[in-house]
Design a protein that fits this description.
Elements: H1 2-15, E1 19-24, H2 31-39, E2 44-46, H3 52-77, H4 91-106, E3 117-121, H5 129-135, E4 140-145, H6 148-162, H7 164-170, H8 174-198, E5 203-207, H9 208-213, H10 215-226, H11 232-241, H12 244-248, H13 276-292, H14 312-317
Helix pairs in contact: 1-4, 2-11, 3-4, 6-7, 6-8, 8-13, 10-11
């Protein structure tokens, strides 16, 4: 056991010599795509979703709270007549435990000397950038932003594929889902942007649409931010690994497969589903952030749009 502990400590020590980064963004903003692009870089490891602040931290806090309550009860009822008492875990110890747990999850690639930068992406990270920076002061943070209307449509079809029962229980129609999503998108985009305004040296924001339209300069900007090579050979390597045709098994962008995580791979698909009323509702909740990120507020959807007010059962049959 001691040998295993010492080996894990050595792995953590190696990790702490690397540049760490965290990716976040509103749901269906392209965080997975960005992760895959970066993970292909020979000096970067970025292996998916750890859900550290959104799941691990609350679970850890609940466990420590229960433990501290037990210690307090024992100190009071069993050892109340004795001086002192057994110490409880405080904020400093909790931060240490959380940091160590995250480091254990991230440490495996650190054994490879070629890997100099190690990252993690969970979309929810965008709401917890300050907490992550508190325990990793030297980390860098990347926010990817996508038109919230496309996020809503993509999220609808993603949940239709992965959680249809949840959709049925909570939303009578696509429009109801979109209306709810608008506020969530605005909250997430705003949280990341405010973090970046306060800590510009450790933060980078990119737009999904820019990465689609001009992948070479946008990805190069990300690589430069992380301090790794952005020469054309490496850019080609990364972009080939993250191409829609590669990820979808040969489909071209726009060729839809609703049974695939990589459903369609295009920008502006929201125009096929929003009505003027849906647009009004979305902009009422999120118009400020649509404008700030260059998504023209007030643009009318395609007149041929299929109504998002269709019941879920009808959408499922399509």
């Amino acid at each position: 056991m001691a040998g295993s502990y010492d080996a894990l400590q050595a792995e953590i020590a190696a990790l702490r010599q690397r540049q760490l980064f965290f990716i976040g963004g509103a749901a269906k903003s392209g965080t997975t795509w960005l992760q895959l692009l970066l993970d292909r870089h020979p000096a970067i490891s970025c292996k998916g979703e750890g859900h550290f602040p959104s799941f691990l931290l609350p679970a850890l806090m609940n466990a420590i709270l229960e433990y501290n309550e037990l210690i307090a009860r024992k100190n009071r009822t069993v050892f109340g007549e004795l001086p002192g008492g057994y110490p409880q875990l405080g904020q400093e110890q909790i931060a240490y435990l959380l940091t160590t747990a995250i480091e254990l999850q991230l440490s495996a690639p650190a054994s490879d000397p070629a890997i100099r930068v190690i990252g993690e992406k969970t979309p929810d990270n965008v709401r917890f950038f300050p907490q992550l920076q508190a325990v990793f002061p030297s980390a860098k943070f990347i926010q990817i932003v996508r038109d919230g209307r496309d996020c809503a449509v993509s999220g609808w079809f993603h949940n239709l594929r992965t959680a249809p029962d949840w959709l049925r229980e909570n939303f009578a129609s696509m429009e109801a889902y979109i209306t709810r999503t608008a506020g969530d998108w605005a909250e997430n985009v705003g949280a990341g942007t405010r973090f970046g305004a306060a800590r510009p040296q450790s933060y980078l924001a990119i737009r999904y649409e820019d990465l689609v339209a001009e992948p070479v300069p946008v990805l190069a900007r990300v690589l430069n931010f992380l301090g790794v090579s952005a020469d054309l050979e490496i850019l080609d390597l990364c972009l080939d690994a993250g191409a829609f045709e590669t990820l979808s098994g040969g489909r071209r962008p726009g060729e839809e497969d609703r049974n695939s995580f990589f459903r369609k791979g295009v920008s502006g698909d929201w125009r096929n589903y929003f009505t003027a009323e849906t647009s009004r509702r979305f902009e009422a909740a999120a118009g400020e952030w649509l404008e700030r990120y260059g998504y023209r507020s007030g643009s009318l959807p395609d007149r041929r749009a299929r109504s998002p007010a269709l019941p879920l059962a009808e959408m499922t049959r399509r």
